[in-house]
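Lab notebook, design round three. We kept the backbone fixed and only want residue identities now. Task for the bench partner: fill in a sequence for the structure below.
Input structure tokens:
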């Protein structure tokens, strides 16, 4: 490991540069992600070795908040704690470098408040971890419910099952499901998302749900769709139709080929027809271990018609066929932007 004492040793001010504090916070958030990779770990260590102040910034955050120490006490010791602890153990700082530690100023406190909020979502059990069923970004699985209905999951997905004597409800928190509904005349089958209440009037459909919208694809029979964000009458979506539901309500139905989409699902692929690129990326995000970074308003004019494999090669195919640029950021995020 490099000798940090021989690297840049600037005269320390009362506080570290804001840029370094921001980078340190972003690194902690990246490593707190449940899908942090070995590449992330190595990149973090390299960043630490570039400048002794990088190590100090992380150490100060750890000391001030005590967040990672608390995380280590849990039954699930997180990778971020282990990596940071190891780097700090391996890195030998002399007394002059340690002398920078001072009571935190308002800037650092504000930064730590933001970091605490972000990390609490990553480290502490939240909706995803507490869900009745969940799936990883590269996993495909299925569940047979008590009424013999089947739910097939793909990509990072989580849902809760809420069955009672009057109704069967699936609360889809995030991700992608293909549903085969078993008949039960006494208990309607409903999928509830943050944007829509979807009542099954038939047997087979696909739902993609993320923070931007819910997309419903009808493969067989029909569903009744009611938006939850606005006061809009429920609409019937029939086999061969696709709609999106967001904060503005239910979109106009678009025609689709049910057999093609059904077959694509079985082959772990996504069929899109003239779909705005930002919406395609919203769906692909659930199949990626890395965070996709893009500005929706800059990409929504690009329409995509393709059959995309639901793995890392999907982004490569998009870059080869569209006028876009895909790069990796300092923290390992995947940045997508239109070429100028």
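Proposed sequence:
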């Amino acid at each position: 490991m490099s000798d940090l004492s021989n690297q840049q040793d600037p005269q320390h001010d009362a506080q570290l540069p804001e840029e370094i504090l921001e980078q340190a916070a972003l690194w902690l958030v990246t490593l707190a992600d449940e899908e942090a990779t070995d590449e992330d770990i190595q990149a973090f260590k390299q960043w630490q070795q570039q400048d002794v102040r990088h190590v100090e910034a992380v150490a100060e955050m750890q000391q001030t908040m005590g967040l990672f120490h608390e995380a280590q006490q849990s039954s699930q010791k997180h990778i971020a704690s282990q990596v940071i602890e190891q780097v700090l153990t391996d890195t030998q700082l002399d007394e002059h470098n340690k002398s920078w530690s001072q009571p935190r100023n308002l800037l650092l406190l504000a930064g730590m408040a933001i970091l605490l909020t972000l990390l609490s979502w990553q480290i502490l059990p939240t909706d995803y971890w507490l869900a009745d069923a969940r799936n990883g970004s590269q996993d495909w699985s299925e569940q047979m419910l008590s009424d013999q209905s089947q739910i097939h999951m793909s990509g990072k997905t989580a849902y809760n099952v809420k069955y009672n004597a009057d109704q069967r409800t699936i609360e889809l928190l995030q991700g992608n499901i293909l549903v085969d509904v078993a008949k039960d005349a006494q208990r309607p089958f409903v999928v509830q998302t943050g944007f829509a209440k979807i009542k099954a009037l038939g047997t087979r459909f696909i739902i993609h749900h993320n923070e931007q919208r819910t997309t419903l694809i009808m493969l067989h029979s029909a569903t009744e769709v009611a938006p939850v964000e606005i006061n809009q009458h429920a609409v019937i979506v029939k086999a061969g139709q696709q709609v999106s539901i967001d904060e503005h309500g239910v979109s106009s139905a678009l025609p689709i080929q049910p057999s093609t989409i059904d077959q694509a699902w079985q082959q772990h692929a996504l069929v899109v027809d003239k779909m705005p690129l930002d919406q395609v990326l919203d769906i692909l995000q659930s199949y990626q271990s890395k965070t996709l970074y893009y500005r929706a308003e800059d990409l929504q004019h690009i329409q995509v018609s393709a059959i995309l494999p639901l793995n890392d090669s999907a982004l490569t195919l998009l870059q080869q066929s569209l006028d876009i640029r895909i790069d990796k950021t300092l923290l390992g995020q995947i940045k997508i932007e239109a070429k100028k």
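Keep this in mind before ordering anything: The CA atoms of residues 64 and 109 lie 9 Å apart.
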